[in-house]
Every structure is written in C-alpha cells, then in structure tokens.
Amino acid sequence: MNLGYFDDDNKEYVITTPRTPLPWINYLGCESFFRLISNTGGGYAFYKDAKLLRLTRYRYNNAPLDSNGHYFYINDNGCIWNPGWQPVQTELDSYECRHGLGYTTYKGSKNGIEAHVTSFVPIGANCELTRLSLNNTSDKSKTFSVYSYIEFCLWNAVDDMNNFQRTYSTGEVEIEPYKANSCIYHKTEYRERRNHYALCAMNSSCDGFDTDRDSFLGTYGSPQMPDAVAAKTSHNSKASGWNPVASFRKDITLKPNEKCHFIYMLGYIENPDDEKWEAPQKINKQRAKAMIDTYMTDEAFDNAFNRLKEHWNNLLSKYTLETSDDKLCRMVNIWNQYQCMVTFNMSRSASYYESGTGRGMGFRDSCQDLLGFVHLIPDAARQRILDIASTQFENGSAYHQYQPLTKQGNSDIGSGFNDDPLWLIAGTAAYLKETGDYSILDEMTPFDCNKENTAPLMEHLRRSFNFTTTHLGPHNLPLIGRADWNDCLNLNCFSTVPGESFQTTGPSEGPVAESVFIAGMYVKYGRDYEAICRHLGLDDEADAVCNHVNDMIKAVTESGWDGEWFLRAYDAAGEKVGSHECKEGQIFIEPQGFCVMAGIGTDNGLAVRALRSVEEKLDTKYGIVLLQPAYTSYHPELGEITSYPEGYKENAGIFCHNNPWISIAETVVGHGNRAFDVYKKICPAYLQDVSDLHKTESYVYSQMIAGIDAAHFGEAKNSWLTGTAAWTFTNISQYILGIRPEFDGLCIDPCIPDYMKEFSVKRTFRGAEYNIHIDNSSGSQKGLKSLIVNGKSVEGNIIPYDENIKKYDVTAVL
Q1: Which of 487, 551, 677, 754 is catalytic?
Q2: Spans in the chain with pLDDT lower than 70
Q3: What is the reported pTM?
Q4: What domains can be seen in the chain, in order of their start residue?
Q5: CB within 8 Å of 758: residues ≥ 6 apart
C-alpha cells in the first residue's frame, strides 16, 4: 500500500494520509537549532542538545500517539480541527504533507477553509519559522478563530520529566508586544543563568493569549480538545510555576476566495556574558527583537526559505547520479545523502526512538557517520574527528558516548567497547582520502577532554591501533571488552535474571572473550593506518603495522574460520560463538561482511564460501538477518542479545546497518548482481508497496526490520538515526557505482548488475569537478577494460590527483 509518493523535481516526499502507520517525520535545522516535525505537526525543538537545552516538550509513548507538538487549532463556528489532523483528529475534507530538505509543509481543509502550514529553520538562525496561510474557498464569508500552541520544556529534559517538586515552582514568562508583533518570552532558568531564554512570537497583534497550560487546556483537559479553544476564548493567563505554554488567538473574517497569512517564530536567545541583564526579574530582549526584525515579514520569510533550498541544492550537487532507474537516482541524489546529513547533526541522540536524554553522540556512531557526509561538508567532518578524538583515553580506548553541548565523555556509559578505537582510524582515513588534508594529523587534541594533556591527532590514531594490538586473547584475536559493534553481545558478562545489570566475571577468569569482527576491522583499517604512516615517511612503523595485520589474517584463518563461514567470537570460557557447533546462533552477519571487506579469504576461496553461506542461511525477502538460528532462551554467557524475542533487534532481526557490509563484500569478490540485490532489499525507494507493513517512513532507512522468526516479519523500527544511512551511501556510491576516493586520487571501480548498461556520475573531489560516464554495454559485473581521462588513456583504475586540474571528463568501459 502506498501512503504517498516521491516528488523528485521538488526533492519532496508527499504523504497523502494523516493516518500513517507510525508518525512520519522530518528534521528542520542543520546547524544549532533543530526541530523534529511529524506529518501531523507533532514533535519538539531544541538548541544543540536535546537533553540540556530542550525548548518544547514531547511525550514519546503518549496515547494518542504523537499528540504533543506545535499545533494550530481552528474553531469554525464550533467545528474544531487542525490543518495536520492531530491532535483533535477531526476528519478533514483534504490533507497533504510534504517533507522537503530542511522544511515541511502540510495543509488541510474543512468546510470551505483551507489552511497551509510551512515550517523551517533558516540558515544561520536559532529559530523555527512557521507561516500559516488561510484561504476561504467557499462562496460565503467565514468568521473563525485560530489558536497556536506549544508547550515549553524547562530546558533540562530529564529534570523536566523527573524533578516536579522543583520544576512546578520555576516556570516564568513575560508577555509584551514588540512593534506589530505579539511576543511571549519563556525565561525559566534566567533568574539562575541570566543569559538564555526562549521566544514565541506572532507577526500580528493577537486577540488573546495563554501561557499557563491549565488555563488553556483545562485542569483535566488535553491537547485533543483544549478548553479555551472549545469556548472560543483565551484567558490571557501568565504562567507562574507549573507548566508554561505559548498560545496566541486570532479572530479572522474572510470573504469568499479571500486569503490571509501569519508568521510565527519559536526562537532561542543566548546573551554573551557581557550582555547579561542586571535585574534577574527582567530579561534582555535586545537579541530577540533583532531576530524578529530579521525574519517576521513575508519578504524575509520567502528569502530565508529560498536560501534554505539553495543551501541544500548546492550541498547535494557534490555527488549526483544519472541512470534509467529513477528509484536509485532519488536515493543517491536526494534522500540517502539527506539522511546522512541528519545523522551528522544528531548521531543517535534525538529521534522518535531516541529521546535525546541519554545517549548523546556516539564515538563509534559518529565515526561511521563520517563516511556518509565527509564529501558534503569536509570542514565540519574535520572538526567532528577532533571532537571525537578528544574523548579518547591515553591508552587508546574511549568514552563510548559524549554530550553534543559539552563535548564531554559520558561517564554513565563509560568505555570498554573494544571496537571504538579502530573507528577513529576509519573516520580519519575517510577524511584524508576525500580531502588530502594531512594537516589534521598535526592538530593537538586532548585525551579525555583534558586540555592539559594533548597530543597530535596522529598520536591518537597510533594509540587506537596499538590498543587492539596489545589487547589480544588466547587465539591472538582481539579482546571484545564489554562489546564490539554489537552492543548486545556481552561475552565477558553475565546476569542471572534478564534485565539485571551485567556483572563482570571477575579476575580469576579474566575478560578473555575475543571478537572475529574486530579482527576484520583491524585488518581493514590497519591497512589504512599503514598507508597513512607511509605517507608521513614513517616506514618502520608502517612495516610493523603491516606485520601485525598479516599476523591477524593468520589468526582469523586459523582460529576464526568455521568451515563454511567466519566465527563470530569466542566467549569468556573459550567457547565458540557463531559456529555450526552451536545449537543456536550458528552464523552471524558481521564477520562475514567485515572479514571479506578487509580482503581476508579472497585469495583462497574462503570469502566466496562465507558469502554463499550468508545467502543460504541469513537471506530473506526483506533483507539479511543478523544471525541464525535465533536464540529461543536467555543465555547469561552471551548477554543482552538473547534477551530479545526471536527476530527482533540483534536476535535475528534484519539489522539494516550491516546489510551494506555484505553488499560491499560482494563487490570485493566481483558479484555485481548479488551486491545490488542486497542493496535493493532494504532501500526505501524500492519498498513503497509494503509501506503499511514496513510502517516507518518510505523515504529514509530504518535501523531494524523484524526478521523471519518474528511475529511481524518485515515491520521496521528505529528510523532516521542509524549508521545504515552512511553505510548504504558508501556502498552504493563507492562500491557498487564504484566512484571511490583513495589516498592517491579518485578510484573508478564499479561493480554493478550486468543489466545496468550505463550510468553517469558528477562528483566534486578535492575542489575539482569529475564528469564520469560508465559504459557497460558488454553486460559485465566488474572490471575495467579502459579508462579515458580528459582524452588520455590511464593505466589502472585510479585517476591521480593533480591540484592544477579543476575539471575531469572520464569515460570508463567495463
């Protein structure tokens, strides 16, 4: 069932019903101010950090679902409705939502009134702008009232949810007009910090307002039917403690075919220390007024909206595909890259599945996300690498997560995820290949966020590599620590009751569980680290790294091969995990992907056999499951992975994040048909017909799809913020289409289905424009017959980088 359609010309996804199986959302903002917005107006806003600077409240598991947001209510002679259907849920005469790049519009009509809402965050601004356009489409005059409504969060979202004995006494607002605008200032905490507040404004005088939630909703009311709206009044309330809100009422009369519109602003204001107001009972409104003057006119609104569109068009022009497959083009050119940018901004911190109150930014997550956006915003990628590295410890391990506002490591989560250090090499290598900017390696970077203890970034990479080198287990495979990429595979831990905190096994046994997955990482990114060393003239170190990598390949071949596939691990007792000897969990996806991506087994047939086992044992029509057979009971020696029911999450769910690893691995062995088949199975553009089963958005990737053992096989969860975005773009752009940055230049190495006869890619690389045409009229899957660059034949498949050449016309024949 299709619940909408792609409008490729406008780079929008059009949702045609408000009753989507789950809220289908978009992200507004790409710098510091962000808003999550659903197709029915739900969601929330924050500045930089969804935990510490939350502007508006949202209740994740509320019923009705997604019934907190930024809403408009229309009372038309007793008929009360919302342009986006929620939260009143009055049946609309028409409805449409368009999610675009950094903006969302939705419109609804009822009884001859059409209401059109457009929301976005301007480039360079710390506010959300919304324009409400109203049109009387009937043949009679219409008199009605419109109410805006948001509910403020008291900044720290955790405190706001938990510490009511304090928060119910701290809410403060100010209300005053500014020029022709109506303004509500949310100044809770200003008495304490005296430098920040929120602003809610309307570019018109209002006919009433409310800032106290009980006054607007009623003590036992709800957003579904506010008392004030039902009574067609406002109480002009001023919040003092309790729950501050912002609502403006406007009474409107429109003649037949007459239109009107209003602009609303939700802004964040932070005054520098030298502009703090002396009197704590009043706030310094100077910057708020400047923001209003900048944006609260129709001309300013339109100009800011056009700048936003221009920003995204320029950004996405850095990699564009032309081919006959429109589904592939819309994912490569628009939605996959857009999602990569959202994951850059959010990591895993704020979605409709991540509340923004706990995880913050992930060390591993942010390093992987780099792979998907470094070609778009290399300067931001550079800073992100340095931020990540600064949470590393002196021994090479790292905080697993950090808060985006403070950039401090999250001590609640701590460290011990032994794959983390190698991801820093992966992200830095991706940056170096893309930019050629080796100066980043000289940047002095703290350890453990301690500015008194710094070292060049290169030293951080060295300690990352050496951490794994010096943390090997009985089989000379890397120690897994608390976990590797699979956070739920806790082989050094046990719990007697599911849900209890895991306990370490104790010093007598020691944390000796080993990871074949990390071994594959070590080989793949060890080779990148070796290349970095050689570029810097550190040949002795490079030789040592090469020897260590070769030793790891030997260890994997001798102790990590199970006969038909790669083992997953050894547990704390030295027992195999992911072996045919196991009753359940005999084969895992992760090592098959990463070991083959690293080139292990490509010279002796092991790689092809492992991938054949994946196809035979893990493949389904909706994607490749993480393991088989699923675990049917809890195993304390394996940890959280066995706490999930069969077919969900890490227990044999289709974990979309690592499906691209298998696709990339298939390109390594030259299987273009299989690589593209794996790609398509989880690609949103190819799943339109199962939108009602899939449930999550039809335009972005989800983290997980329920596996074949699950009660709801094919149902997705955890959309938007997932490493799937970066890995799928890396897979399709660099390995299937095969336009891949390398240390010495741009590599042309497609591995495509034999029925794809041609395609063209326009790509910006190190300041030059590359126009690349791939001719596959021979029906090959991989292998270049010829490579012509600016009219000259080039040996091999790498176009050497020449800083003096700014345009390349490339023809590659397979």
Answers
A1: 487
A2: 274-281, 412, 494-510
A3: 0.95
A4: 29-313 (2.70.98.40), 472-652 (1.50.10.10), 739-813 (2.60.420.10)
A5: 323, 773, 774, 775, 776, 777
